[in-house]
Amino acid sequence: MKTLYEMKQDLVTIGQQLQKVESELAEKAIDPKTTMEEIQALQKSKEDLKMRFDIIKQQHDVLEEEQRARFEAKNNVQSIEDPKQRLIKAKA
């Protein structure tokens, strides 16, 4: 299974690709020389990347929550009521 760091890297990579396709789609939509097939291909690519991003984001969030819960259980961070003391304990 991938680490949280690797998933964050994947999110960044897919996010950058998604932004590139979105800006390219906007440019092509303005250009009257662009065919509808090109625009549709870019829209399909955008949808695919968005779906991939959402899947990785969901996996990332689940893994992050699991790690946070294990950390807090291990260090009894939740038993401390004062937020400042909880932060100090979490960082220690």
Please, could you describe this protein's structure?
With 92 residues, the protein is mostly helical. The protein has one domain (4-91). Helices cover 83% and strands 0% of the residues. The protein has three helices and no strands. α1 runs antiparallel to α2 (36-75). The longest helix has 40 residues, at 36-75. The model has no long low-confidence stretch (mean pLDDT 87).
Considering the chains and any ligands shown, give keywords for the structure.
single chain, elongated, 0% strand, 92 residues, 3 helices, mainly alpha
SSE blueprint and pairings:
Elements: H1 4-30, H2 36-75, H3 83-91
Unreliable runs, pLDDT <50, ≥5 residues?
none
Largest sheet: none
* Structure annotation, total helices: 3
Number of domains: 1
Question: In terms of quaternary structure, what is this?
Answer: single chain
- The count of DSSP E runs of length 2 or more, i.e. the number of strands, is 0
Mean pLDDT: 87
Distance between the termini: 28 Å
Q: What structural class do you assign from the helix and strand content? A: mainly alpha
H and E order: HHH
Give the percentage of residues in beta strands.
under 5%
What coarse outline follows from CA principal-axis ratios?
A: elongated
Rg (C-alpha, Å): 21 Å
Q: What portion of residues is helical?
A: over 70%
